[in-house]
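Reviewers of the previous submission asked for a worked example of the structure-prediction workflow described in the proposal, so we include one complete record here. The input consisted solely of the amino acid sequence. No template or homolog information was supplied to the procedure at any stage.
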Amino acid sequence: MMESIDRRTFLGAIPLTAAALGCGGGGAEAGADVSEDDAPSGGADRAALLPAVGVQLYTLRDAITEDLDAVLASLVEIGYAEVELFQLHGLTPGEMRAKLDAAGLRAASSHYGLPALREDLARHVEGALEIGQELMVVPSIDGAERSPDGLARVAEDFNRIAETVREAGMRFGYHNHDWEFRPFDDGTVPMEMLLDRTDPALVDWQMDIFWTVHGGADPLEALETRSGRVTSAHVKDRTVDGQMVDVGDGVIDFAEVLSAARGHGLLHAFVEHDAPGDAVRSVRRSYEHLSGIGVVS
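From that input alone, the workflow returned the following structure tokens.
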């Protein structure tokens, strides 16, 4: 495991290519901020920062093709209580709900392609409700729409979709990668544009902590300036040279970041690794690290 380094040193080691996210468009009230002095510093002798930590099942996609039930059972054995879906693996929403219930898990969220929501929003909302979700999240934006004009259209669709999702009793959000923090030729920062043009009462930000750092942004500054927008997060670690690793094997201080996020409205955190060598071992090691620093019991 790499030795942890302080936040200033870490952020100084990556290319800060994006301006700090703007202060406008803050979300709803989300509780008192948590200072750095209040952040968990490790150990199970304190109350857990989060009631539960989930896992994005994309991490385990290869194992799922062999035996979904075995994967779900292994997650419960590790200690996970929640998952985030990225597809239904050939099942109906009801069948997926039955498998999750049998394993003792709940799907708090799922990812949906924007074209699918544009085409048949009602069906996907109905399925999400049947599964028992709280969140519906768009995980990416097509390259053809990654322009100021394209994102303006996307923002309009996000507001429209989110209104329907809220009426159904759920929340809607967008999950970032790194390109959103790199300015267009006109100086516009894509993530700023999306947050500024969407209703903070409707559209949440699912912060992928790895990709936020990789894009040159400071998660702590973003949480402060966009308080209330980050209701869920993807938790995956990064080395100084930009490699994605299991949580605890990199240099991101998750005790500090997740403590701040909790103070600014975080409801769900999902462990993820885009390309793990051994997926079950990866999510186990990540959970053990988060438990060891007091994020989860």
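The chain has a mean pLDDT of 89. We consider this example representative of the routine output the project will generate in years two and three.
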